[in-house]
Amino acid sequence: MPAKIEHIDHHGQPALRLTTAAGARAVVALQGAQVLSWSPPGGGERLYLSPRAVFDASMPVRGGIPVCFPQFADLGPLPAHGFARKLKWALATERSGDDFALVGLRLVDDDDTRAAWPHAFSAELSVLIEDSRLDLELEIENTGGEAFDFTAALHTYLAVREVEESRIEGLHGFSYRDKTDANRIKRDSGDVLVIEAETDRVYHDVSRPLLLREYDRSLGVNAEGFPDVVVWNPWVERSAAIADLPDDGFRRMLCIEAAAARQPVRLPAGETWWGRQTLVAL
Questions:
Q1: Which residues have C-beta within 8 Å of that of residue 193, sequence separation ≥ 6?
Q2: Contact 188, 173 (CB under 8 A)
Q3: Strand order in the sheet with 272-281
Q4: How far is Cα 15 from Cα 11, in angstroms, rounded to an integer?
Q5: From CA 210, how far away is CA 188, in angstroms rounded?
Q6: Side-chain half-sphere of 42: how many Cα atoms within 13 Å?
Q7: How far apart are CA 210 and CA 170, in angstroms?
Q8: Which of 4, 120, 157, 197 could cross-link to 48 by cystine, CB 3.0-4.6 Å?
């Protein structure tokens, strides 16, 4: 059976379901161009989606892979993480073969976006599943007459069986901004990163792939174009304070995000920027 792309209703919202002949599966919502689910062949779900997620378009969906643009977090005048994750994107591309399925979704400026952020742009997110790999590529084009600055991220919520038993390898030696400690700049000196408290770090200029290890499975995480890596887990108190996350939701999720956060991207008129995150189930 060849790969296929189906247009479906997902919790009342239009979405795309991608499947491959080998058994890989993904669901991508048009709202926010948000990947909500990804399972590699023969494996379980690898993205965390909150059981309390809201799908009525009144707020971003908690979990999956939200697209943060044109602002990451609170690093600017816009509401946290910008507006792209809240808006409906248009389907621009869909292709499939025997062993892959790919969709591209596009968002362009309009009166509402220009009222919040006065720039002309085109954003496209490509989502590809192939073998045990999920590829996401975000491309931003400046379609206006003046340069603009932006920050961005693929806010990836990874599903883990128990966050305290998970290990992140590959961050040793990199500097990071620790939001839980007054944004102090620190250097990671451990062989692995273990989550044992609230964690909110932006690692700078990460130049090698990462590995998330669990009991009996691992996940490779690689980025291109995005210079930074965000590691986030809300832990006990913050998890309980987030309305669309269960009190114990922090135990089943760990965000490892590809980001351009430390330094805004300066994009001249007519130019294009891109960044990619690849997840590989091992």
A1: 167, 168, 169, 171, 231
A2: yes
A3: 90-96, 100-108, 121-130, 133-142, 272-281, 218-224, 210-213, 167-169, 192-193
A4: 9
A5: 14
A6: 6
A7: 5
A8: 157
The single residue listed with the structure tokens 């040793």 is: 172
Which residue reads 């005048």 in tokens? 77
pLDDT in tens, 219-272: 999 999 999 999 999 999 999 999 999 999 999 999 999 999 999 999 999 999
Q: Are 166 and 141 in contact (CB under 8 A)?
A: no
- Nearest CA-CA partner of 229 in 216, 246, 212, 245: 212
- 28 token code pair: 């991508």
The CA R_g of the chain, rounded to the nearest whole Å, is 18
The amino acid sitting at 110 is D
d(CA 46, CA 157): 9
* Phi (first) and psi of residue 75, to 5 degrees: -85, 60
Pairing of strands 100-108, 121-130: antiparallel
Residue 3 main-chain phi, psi, to 5 deg: -65, 155
The residues annotated with a catalytic role in the active site are 155, 257
User: Which pTM was predicted?
Assistant: 0.97
Chain centroid to Cα 149, Å, comes to 20
For the chain, how far is it from start to end, CA to CA, in angstroms?
24
Give start and end residues of each alpha helix (H) in the chain. 111-116, 235-241
* Backbone phi, psi, residue 180, to 5°: -80, -5
Residue 75's Cβ-count burial label (10 Å; 0-12, 13-18, 19+) is: middle
- Residue that is written with structure tokens 């599903």 in the block: 159
Give the tens place of pLDDT for each residue, 46-67: 999 999 999 988 889 999 999 9
Signed CA dihedral, 232, 53, 61, 128: sign only: positive
Residue 112, SS3? helix
